[in-house]
Amino acid sequence: VLKRKNNFYNFQETMTLRKSQKGFTLVEVLIVIAIIGLLGTLAVVAIGSSKRKARDAKRVSDIKQIQNALYLHNSDRAVYPTVAEPIRLGEGTDCSGFSCSTLSSDGGFSNTPAGTTYVANLPNNPRPSGSAYLYQSPDGLTYTLGFTLEGPLGELFGPNCLATPDKIDCTGTF
User: Fold this and answer.
1) How many angstroms separate the first and last alpha carbons of the chain?
2) Nearest in space to 85 (alpha carbons), one of 97, 77, 94, 74
3) How do residues 105-135 score in pLDDT, each as one tens digit?
4) Where are the beta strands (DSSP E) in the chain?
5) Is the dihedral of CA 123, 137, 103, 110 positive or negative?
6) Nearest 5°: CA angle at 45, between 41 and 51?
């Protein structure tokens, strides 16, 4: 019980009472829990965005690797592998009932290499989203690689992207 002196509480007695009270109030605990929850939510959102960007960066890297292999094939054979209809690279059964998992000089895209091997294992699109990498070259003079992005990545604004011998563009569809 506080005693009044000149219409003011005795400061020394007040401090003695507060020192004897240990712990936090319910309001203080709830505020700390709310702050921790907010920080946790922000961390989860940032991690999800980073994973999406990492998958998209891998997709662009994969396409550049395939472009380099196609350049080498064209340097040796003077044409790109001829494929009239789009095929899925690295997965599916588009190459005579097998997956198109390699690129070689004599076999083109196939499941087994023949001649000089440019890519022994064609990359697959990283999961969980996106579709297979698609390749098409009806005449062997040029080609189109189709792929999807989950979101913007640098100058590529997706989602539908096309790669040709001289550029990667995300304004069209395959």
Assistant:
1) 82
2) 94
3) 998 998 888 999 999 888 888 877 778 899 9
4) 4-5, 8-9, 83-89, 102-104, 108-110, 117-119, 133-137, 144-148, 160-164, 167-169
5) positive
6) 145
Closest to 134 in 3D by CA, of 122, 124, 146, 126: 146
Give the other-Cβ count within 10 Å of 102's Cβ.
Answer: 23
Q: What is the pLDDT of residue 167?
A: 92
Half-sphere exposure of 125 (CA within 13 A, CB side): 19
Integer Cα distance of 170 and 3 in angstroms = 78
Determine phi and psi for 34, rounding to 5 degrees: -65, -40
CA atoms 154, 156, 160, 166: torsion sign:
negative
Side chain identity, residue 158: G
pLDDT for 29-59, tens place per residue? 999 999 999 999 988 887 878 888 899 999 9
SS3 106: coil
